[in-house]
Amino acid sequence: MESFRISFINLFWLYLRFSEDHGGRCSDTVWQLPEPTISHLDAVSDKQSLVVSWLLNHSSSAGGINEIQISRTEDHVIIYNKNVSARSVGSHGYQWTWTSDLPLECVDHFVRVRHFDNRSVPSPWSKWKANSGAKAKKITMFPLDRMLKDGSNATFCCVPPAGVNITRITLSDQEYPLISIGARVKAIAVENLRFPTNTFKFLKLNCSASTGISRAVVNFVSFPPQKPRNLSCATSSMTTVTCTWDPGRKQHPHDRNKRTYTLHVENTDLAPIKCQTWSCTFPSIPHLNEYNVTVVVKDKLGEEAESYSFNISDRVFPVAEWDSVSPGVTDANMSWIIQGNLTQLLCQLTVNTKATTVLNCSGINGPCKVKVEHLLPSTHYSTRVRCSANGMLWGNWTQPEPFTTYPLVTLNLWRKIKQLSYPYTRQVTLLWKMDASGSATTETAKAYTVQWWPEGKNKTVWTDGGQTQAEVSIGPQQCDFTVKAVLHAGSSIPAHITIPKLDDRENLPEEKRLSSGSAAGFNLSWSEWDEPTCGYTVEWCILGDPVSPLQWKHIPEGNNTLLLPAGAVPSPSLVEPVQTTSSSVTLEWRYSEDDPSHVAFITGYLVSVKEVGPNMLPCHSTAMDVFNVSVADPRRKSVTVEGLKQSQEYTFCVSALTKNGPGQPTSITITTRTNYSAQLVKILTFTLFLLSCIILLWCQRKLLKRRLTEVFVYPAGMSIKTPELISFLQQTGERVPSHKMEECITCDIEILNSHRPLLKPSTLRDPVFMSTQFSDSSLSPLCVVPVKDYCPHSVTPPCERPALQQITCMTNRSYFYPMVDESSQTRGEMTSSEVKPSFDLSDGQQSSCTVTYGYVSNDTL
Question: Which parts of the chain span the membrane according to its record (predicted)?
């Protein structure tokens, strides 16, 4: 409707003009607006925008419509002509911004404007206002060093000096069609700019001229800022507020489109706060609960903003920090600090992410404390804690704090009481033994503390870690003693004992002497008393042994028997490495034979030796393959076992001996060394024997050579023609058809006549063979020369004796025939065709020889 109205006004104005020109009337009823004046034309190069400002010279023209024309080049080619709604500036001014698809530096741009309203005809056009392009003295390209938007369309131009023609434009080495802008300027249009793949993320623009000159510039591509997402604010101390957000798409490290983040607290007087990419912190305002904040992000390609409102009391996330973690044996004391002035907090504490302890805490009264119980000794743990102000929003968990509980070490405490000569004075000797379990079995005490309270006063005595007793003088009053071991990691559980008052009628210990026992140990028993409420204590020592320490054992209430096992003795500790030879092994071990914790007295050591094998017997076996070595002195802790085999694997068992037998053994497997001297003797003996044989054979080398020659060398003078033999075998294989597989039956008959032959030689002939004529003269009958003293392996040359002898050979060749029912004619033909000479004889010998040949059939055998 607006365009229709404007068109109607224009037509009406033309009508009035023509009416005025021809009729000379209407001048008193229609009037024309004055010509607008363009006051400013500002170019914003990085945005390729022209900002036009103009003035209307008549107050009644306010609120009308403005028509703007924009042209390019010296020919004033109109590229834009539209009616626009301009922004009012002052009482008679207007302002409007136009964005060009072509960089403003490429060519000159001209702008003019006119104004009209509903009551008048359009005003005359204002004069053209020019924005000059670049006047190049050399090839210049635009845009230059500018930040371009990823995915946008862009136009690039080359401005040459006068007389130079642009022939080629490339962007990132890709050539585009040229667009003429005026007489000299050339441009290219690129759609959908993409983020460069090179390291520094730039686009290279190159222009080539007809003169051969080429120049290049670079521009950059990036993406505009994104609106912050998931904006939220929270406080951990009520003194500062931290806002965080998701900035969106991550920028490349070499992206030159640097962004700025600014936080505005709208309902306060706080100045804008510069922020990091993801967060911003500002001070809270006392007594202000409601906050309205806005995060603004800007860069060369645009601006985005996001707002957030909150009540600070609802956005409290307490931050806890560990103060200390002090482990014990089965418990641990923990404390942590809460940042800020927060009260009435609820905290959660976990140990190994399993058990959760919930407790109330106040951050203004010092660290929050808790004692975690029911832990295991010598165990690794990890603990975390977090807190909440309202039970709904919880702060972050602290980093896991590892700790290890101390080993479980207890003291077995006893005493001896001696009445001194001074009145009402007693000497108390405190005795203790350290008991440990698990990984604490190797734990040693650095020191011991003995503490007691005579007459309400606290007294403490420190003893060395190697001492296990302390002497203290007390009066007639009751006295409580506490002994504690100081370990390398923590301390033991304190042991307590009470010394009664002197005037109390205590039951004196009942002595009993034991002179013998059984293999299991010593059996003790006593009459049960009515008074004891905490059980009994049995103490014992070896009679006649001045260095034997006092030993004791606590018996729970209700028991009046005790077995002191003789074999409950710990095993020795072997010292490695062990010294070995090819026939002996020297063992060393460590053992505390005077340890008062032994329930039996050590009298020596037993070393058992056995060979390692599939049926290996346990230590201290009485089998034949086991022998024992005893050490009678309990203070001697080494022995050498001799008479062993070389390179043999043995198991050695060492145990402490008591009166009733060996204790728990400790074992080690050792392989004896190899006796290289004996091996060397065997090698030398064999070498000498071999040399002796070689010497003896060398002396008889001629005889040995002759014997070997007779056995292995082929006889001289025997001529076998290998090619003819091979040809014969091949022809035989071709002519003999396939046969059914059956057992090969053959027999050779050789008849040797040692007398001189008759006038007509006697021969055996096959009837079929006799009727077969040789078709080839080369298949002459075979001459068999009789040999005196013939044997099958004789190699005597044929026909070398003057007196001829006759030999007749007959061979069963039934295995050549394919079937039993074959005709004799076939067999005869096959036999005759196979006859070939196999020896070469002189002509003289062949003339006096008679062919003798025949076969014996299966039927005659």
Answer: 680-699
**Angle made by CA atoms 788, 792, 798, in degrees to the nearest 5:** 50
One-letter-per-residue 3-state SS of 199-218: CCCEEEEEEEECCCCEEEEE
Q: Which residues partner with 447 through β-bridges?
A: 464, 486
458 touches 397 (CB < 8 A): no
- Give pLDDT tens digits for 28-62: 445 677 889 999 999 999 899 999 999 987 655 55
Tens of pLDDT along 668-702?
999 998 888 777 888 888 888 888 888 888 888 88
Q: How far apart are CA 209 and CA 447, in angstroms?
A: 96
Q: Which among 334, 356, 359 has a CA at the least distance from the CA of 345?
A: 359
> For residue range 384-441, what is the model confidence (pLDDT) as tens digits?
999 998 888 899 999 999 999 888 888 999 999 888 888 888 999 999 988 876 655 5
Rounded to whole angstroms, the Cα distance separating 455 from 753 reads 146
pLDDT per residue over 616-669, tens digit each? 665 655 555 567 888 989 899 999 999 888 888 999 999 998 877 788 888 899
What is the amino acid identity at position 632?
A
692 φ/ψ angles, rounded to the nearest 5 degrees = -65, -45
- Looking at beta carbons, which pairs linking 551-558 to residues 24 or more positions away fall under 8 Å? 551/596, 551/597, 551/599, 552/412, 552/414, 552/431, 554/412, 557/532, 557/533
pLDDT value, residue 625: 54
Angstrom CA distances, 600 to 519, 539, 564, stand at: 12, 13, 8
| CA 475 vs CA 478, 479, 482, 499, 816: distances in Å | 8, 9, 17, 10, 131
Q: How far apart are CA 732 and CA 729, in angstroms?
A: 5
Contact 343, 362 (CB under 8 A): yes
> Using alpha carbons only, what angle is made at residue 73 by residues 69 and 77, rounded to the nearest 5 degrees?
45
What does the DSSP assignment read for 405-469? PPP-EEEEEEEEEEE-SSTT-EEEEEEEEEEE-GGGGG--EEEEEEEE-GGG--EEEEEETT--E
Q: What angle do CA 578, 584, 589 make, to 5 degrees?
A: 35
Tokens 């080398």 appear where? 701
Please answer whether residues 771 and 859 qualify as being in contact, where contact means their C-beta atoms are separated by less than 8 angstroms. no
H-helix or E-strand containing 779? none
The 8-class DSSP code of residue 40 comes to E
Give per-residue burial for 19-36: e unless 16+ CB within 10 Å, then b. Answer: eeeeeeeeeeebeebeeb
Radius of gyration over alpha carbons of the chain, in Å?
62
CB 524 within 8 A of CB 562: yes
Between CA 339 and CA 390 the distance in angstroms is 16
DSSP 3-state percent helix, strand, coil across the chain (nearest 5): 15, 40, 50
Nearest by Cα to 340 from 241, 244, 245: 241
Supply the DSSP string of 505-551, one letter for each residue: -PPPPPP-------SSEEEEE-PPPSS-SS-EEEEE--TT-TTPPPE
Residues with Cβ within 8 Å of 689's Cβ and at least 6 positions away in sequence, in order, are none
Residue closest to 109 by CA, chosen among 71, 165, 158, 59: 71
Strand order in the sheet with 185-190: 140-142, 154-159, 185-190, 179-181
Residue 617, Cα to own-chain centre: how many angstroms?
45
Would you say 73 and 182 are in contact if contact means Cβ atoms under 8 Å apart?
yes
Is 60 exceeded by the pLDDT of residue 784? no
Checking DSSP bridges between strand 469-474 and strand 426-436, what pairing results, if any? Answer: antiparallel
Write the DSSP string, 566-613: SS--PPPEE-SSPEE-SSEEEEEEE--TT-TT-SS---EEEEEEEE--
The span from the CA of 593 to the CA of 569, in Å, is: 10
How deeply is 581 buried, as exposed, middle or buried, from its count of CB atoms within 10 A (0-12, 13-18, 19+)?
Answer: middle
Residue 575 CA from chain centroid, whole number: 39
